[in-house]
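pasting for the record
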Amino acid sequence: MLGRIPNPLRCTAHVAGIAVAFLCSSVAAITAEEANTGSNVCAQREALLMILVEAHGAAPNFASDKLAADSVALAQTRSACDNGHAKDAAAFYDRLIEELTVSLNGAK
């Protein structure tokens, strides 16, 4: 039987911390050699984005509002990844991830 999480905010903070640490370790500039692995860069950013949205919780909040406002840009970013423009896409993902991280840390 699974136990209850004693402090959900602490768990959320840990998840967000892990996501930020992962981002910091993979934010190195995308070089020409890495252009072939652009889909990996985009997949990492997409996974971080999903983790941060889940860390914000199910209730409507900044994360859901931000994603709704940037939904067209996010779709264009995904298309840019598919078309080999990972450097441009990573910049958008990084900005969005930073905004969600800051809002999550401010909600503590």
